[in-house]
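Deliverable D5.2: sample structural annotation.
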Amino acid sequence: MATVAIIDSGGANINSVVFACRRLGVEPEFTGDRQVIESASHVILPGVGAAATAMQRLRELELVDVISNLKQPVLGICLGMQLLFESSDEGDTKCLGIIPARVTAIARCNGLSLPHTGWNEVRIRNERAEHPLFQGFDPMLYGYFVHGFAAPVGSWTMALTRHGDEFSSIVARDNFCGIQFHPERSGEAGARLLDNFFCLEWRRGNE
Protein backbone atom coordinates (compact mmCIF):
# COMPACT_ATOMS: atom_id res chain seq x y z
CA MET A 1 0.00 0.00 0.00
CA ALA A 2 1.17 3.52 -0.77
CA THR A 3 2.54 5.65 2.03
CA VAL A 4 1.59 9.21 1.16
CA ALA A 5 3.06 12.47 2.42
CA ILE A 6 1.05 15.65 1.80
CA ILE A 7 3.44 18.60 1.96
CA ASP A 8 2.50 21.48 4.26
CA SER A 9 2.61 24.20 1.60
CA GLY A 10 0.08 26.39 3.37
CA GLY A 11 -2.75 25.69 0.91
CA ALA A 12 -6.41 25.89 1.82
CA ASN A 13 -7.55 22.59 0.27
CA ILE A 14 -5.67 20.28 2.62
CA ASN A 15 -8.66 18.64 4.32
CA SER A 16 -10.40 17.84 1.03
CA VAL A 17 -7.22 16.20 -0.29
CA VAL A 18 -6.81 14.19 2.92
CA PHE A 19 -10.43 12.99 2.77
CA ALA A 20 -10.05 12.07 -0.92
CA CYS A 21 -7.06 9.89 -0.04
CA ARG A 22 -8.94 8.23 2.80
CA ARG A 23 -11.85 7.39 0.50
CA LEU A 24 -9.33 5.41 -1.57
CA GLY A 25 -8.08 3.53 1.48
CA VAL A 26 -4.90 5.61 1.87
CA GLU A 27 -4.08 7.33 5.17
CA PRO A 28 -1.80 10.28 4.26
CA GLU A 29 0.47 12.23 6.56
CA PHE A 30 0.30 16.02 6.39
CA THR A 31 3.84 17.17 7.07
CA GLY A 32 6.67 19.60 6.60
CA ASP A 33 9.23 17.10 7.85
CA ARG A 34 11.98 16.33 5.35
CA GLN A 35 12.51 12.75 6.50
CA VAL A 36 8.81 11.89 6.31
CA ILE A 37 8.59 13.34 2.80
CA GLU A 38 11.72 11.60 1.54
CA SER A 39 10.66 8.22 2.95
CA ALA A 40 7.09 8.29 1.58
CA SER A 41 6.29 6.16 -1.45
CA HIS A 42 4.19 9.00 -2.95
CA VAL A 43 4.19 12.75 -2.31
CA ILE A 44 1.42 15.30 -2.91
CA LEU A 45 2.10 19.03 -3.18
CA PRO A 46 -1.29 20.76 -2.74
CA GLY A 47 -2.11 24.42 -2.78
CA VAL A 48 -4.78 27.08 -3.06
CA GLY A 49 -3.56 30.65 -2.76
CA ALA A 50 -0.64 32.71 -3.99
CA ALA A 51 2.54 31.31 -5.54
CA ALA A 52 4.84 33.68 -3.62
CA THR A 53 3.27 32.74 -0.28
CA ALA A 54 3.53 29.02 -0.97
CA MET A 55 7.17 29.26 -2.10
CA GLN A 56 8.01 31.30 0.99
CA ARG A 57 6.45 28.55 3.11
CA LEU A 58 8.57 25.89 1.35
CA ARG A 59 11.71 27.97 1.85
CA GLU A 60 10.94 28.41 5.56
CA LEU A 61 10.63 24.64 5.89
CA GLU A 62 13.84 24.17 3.82
CA LEU A 63 11.95 21.95 1.39
CA VAL A 64 12.71 23.54 -2.00
CA ASP A 65 15.74 21.35 -2.77
CA VAL A 66 14.15 18.37 -1.02
CA ILE A 67 11.14 18.43 -3.35
CA SER A 68 13.22 19.03 -6.46
CA ASN A 69 15.38 15.99 -5.70
CA LEU A 70 12.59 13.51 -4.90
CA LYS A 71 12.67 10.29 -6.94
CA GLN A 72 9.29 8.81 -5.98
CA PRO A 73 6.04 9.86 -7.71
CA VAL A 74 5.13 13.46 -6.86
CA LEU A 75 1.76 15.05 -7.65
CA GLY A 76 1.18 18.81 -7.66
CA ILE A 77 -2.48 19.87 -7.36
CA CYS A 78 -3.75 23.27 -8.56
CA LEU A 79 -1.20 25.81 -7.26
CA GLY A 80 1.00 22.82 -6.40
CA MET A 81 1.16 21.99 -10.12
CA GLN A 82 2.13 25.57 -10.96
CA LEU A 83 4.93 25.45 -8.39
CA LEU A 84 6.56 22.67 -10.42
CA PHE A 85 7.36 25.25 -13.11
CA GLU A 86 10.37 27.53 -13.30
CA SER A 87 8.50 30.70 -12.43
CA SER A 88 5.11 32.36 -12.25
CA ASP A 89 3.70 35.74 -13.24
CA GLU A 90 1.85 35.68 -9.93
CA GLY A 91 4.04 37.94 -7.84
CA ASP A 92 6.91 37.36 -10.30
CA THR A 93 7.74 34.24 -8.28
CA LYS A 94 10.65 31.87 -8.72
CA CYS A 95 9.23 28.36 -8.34
CA LEU A 96 10.74 24.86 -8.11
CA GLY A 97 12.15 24.78 -11.64
CA ILE A 98 11.27 21.17 -12.43
CA ILE A 99 9.47 22.13 -15.65
CA PRO A 100 11.34 24.77 -17.69
CA ALA A 101 8.53 27.23 -18.42
CA ARG A 102 6.65 30.14 -16.86
CA VAL A 103 3.09 30.15 -15.56
CA THR A 104 1.17 33.19 -16.79
CA ALA A 105 -2.11 34.96 -16.05
CA ILE A 106 -5.10 33.77 -18.04
CA ALA A 107 -5.67 36.42 -20.72
CA ARG A 108 -8.81 38.53 -20.37
CA CYS A 109 -11.16 38.19 -23.33
CA ASN A 110 -14.64 39.57 -23.95
CA GLY A 111 -17.10 37.65 -21.83
CA LEU A 112 -14.46 35.38 -20.27
CA SER A 113 -15.01 34.82 -16.56
CA LEU A 114 -11.96 35.14 -14.34
CA PRO A 115 -10.78 33.39 -12.34
CA HIS A 116 -11.56 30.22 -14.27
CA THR A 117 -14.02 28.52 -11.92
CA GLY A 118 -16.17 25.43 -12.39
CA TRP A 119 -16.30 22.33 -14.55
CA ASN A 120 -14.46 22.15 -17.85
CA GLU A 121 -13.29 19.59 -20.38
CA VAL A 122 -9.88 17.97 -19.99
CA ARG A 123 -8.63 16.47 -23.27
CA ILE A 124 -5.92 13.83 -22.98
CA ARG A 125 -3.29 14.10 -25.69
CA ASN A 126 -3.36 11.08 -27.99
CA GLU A 127 0.35 10.47 -27.62
CA ARG A 128 0.00 10.49 -23.81
CA ALA A 129 -3.09 8.30 -23.52
CA GLU A 130 -1.08 5.19 -22.60
CA HIS A 131 0.51 6.83 -19.57
CA PRO A 132 -0.42 4.81 -16.45
CA LEU A 133 -1.96 7.94 -14.91
CA PHE A 134 -4.75 7.59 -17.50
CA GLN A 135 -5.50 3.91 -17.08
CA GLY A 136 -9.25 3.34 -17.54
CA PHE A 137 -9.91 6.77 -19.07
CA ASP A 138 -11.54 7.88 -22.30
CA PRO A 139 -9.78 10.69 -24.20
CA MET A 140 -12.02 13.26 -22.49
CA LEU A 141 -12.84 13.85 -18.84
CA TYR A 142 -14.15 16.74 -16.79
CA GLY A 143 -12.43 18.49 -13.90
CA TYR A 144 -13.38 21.19 -11.43
CA PHE A 145 -11.13 24.25 -11.78
CA VAL A 146 -10.43 27.31 -9.64
CA HIS A 147 -7.48 29.37 -10.91
CA GLY A 148 -6.46 32.65 -12.51
CA PHE A 149 -3.02 31.58 -13.76
CA ALA A 150 -2.24 28.77 -16.17
CA ALA A 151 0.67 26.69 -17.44
CA PRO A 152 1.74 26.82 -21.10
CA VAL A 153 1.57 23.91 -23.51
CA GLY A 154 4.80 22.01 -24.14
CA SER A 155 6.46 18.62 -24.16
CA TRP A 156 5.35 18.20 -20.54
CA THR A 157 1.64 18.54 -21.42
CA MET A 158 -0.42 15.40 -20.81
CA ALA A 159 -3.86 16.97 -21.18
CA LEU A 160 -5.29 20.27 -22.40
CA THR A 161 -8.16 22.53 -21.39
CA ARG A 162 -9.48 25.68 -23.03
CA HIS A 163 -10.62 28.79 -21.19
CA GLY A 164 -9.94 31.48 -23.72
CA ASP A 165 -6.59 30.05 -24.81
CA GLU A 166 -5.58 26.42 -24.33
CA PHE A 167 -3.42 25.58 -21.33
CA SER A 168 -1.88 22.50 -19.72
CA SER A 169 -4.37 20.94 -17.32
CA ILE A 170 -2.30 17.82 -16.59
CA VAL A 171 1.49 17.72 -16.88
CA ALA A 172 4.28 15.22 -16.27
CA ARG A 173 8.04 15.26 -16.33
CA ASP A 174 9.99 12.23 -15.08
CA ASN A 175 8.49 11.32 -11.69
CA PHE A 176 6.64 14.64 -11.30
CA CYS A 177 2.98 14.98 -12.30
CA GLY A 178 0.65 17.93 -11.95
CA ILE A 179 -3.11 18.44 -12.16
CA GLN A 180 -4.42 22.00 -12.52
CA PHE A 181 -7.97 21.14 -11.53
CA HIS A 182 -8.96 19.66 -8.18
CA PRO A 183 -9.18 15.86 -8.39
CA GLU A 184 -10.57 15.78 -4.86
CA ARG A 185 -13.56 17.81 -6.14
CA SER A 186 -13.90 16.17 -9.55
CA GLY A 187 -16.03 13.13 -8.79
CA GLU A 188 -15.25 9.69 -10.17
CA ALA A 189 -12.69 10.96 -12.69
CA GLY A 190 -10.73 12.78 -9.98
CA ALA A 191 -10.80 9.75 -7.70
CA ARG A 192 -9.53 7.53 -10.50
CA LEU A 193 -6.67 9.92 -11.26
CA LEU A 194 -5.61 9.86 -7.61
CA ASP A 195 -5.93 6.08 -7.46
CA ASN A 196 -3.82 5.73 -10.62
CA PHE A 197 -1.23 8.08 -9.12
CA PHE A 198 -0.97 5.90 -6.01
CA CYS A 199 -0.22 2.94 -8.31
CA LEU A 200 2.65 4.71 -10.07
CA GLU A 201 6.16 3.44 -9.48
CA TRP A 202 9.37 5.28 -10.19
CA ARG A 203 12.46 3.32 -11.13
CA ARG A 204 15.85 4.95 -10.95
CA GLY A 205 16.72 3.31 -14.24
CA ASN A 206 14.24 5.67 -15.91
CA GLU A 207 16.18 8.80 -14.91
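Annotation notes: The first helix runs from residue 14 to 23. The first strand starts at residue 4 and ends at 7.
The annotation will be released with the project's public dataset once the embargo ends.
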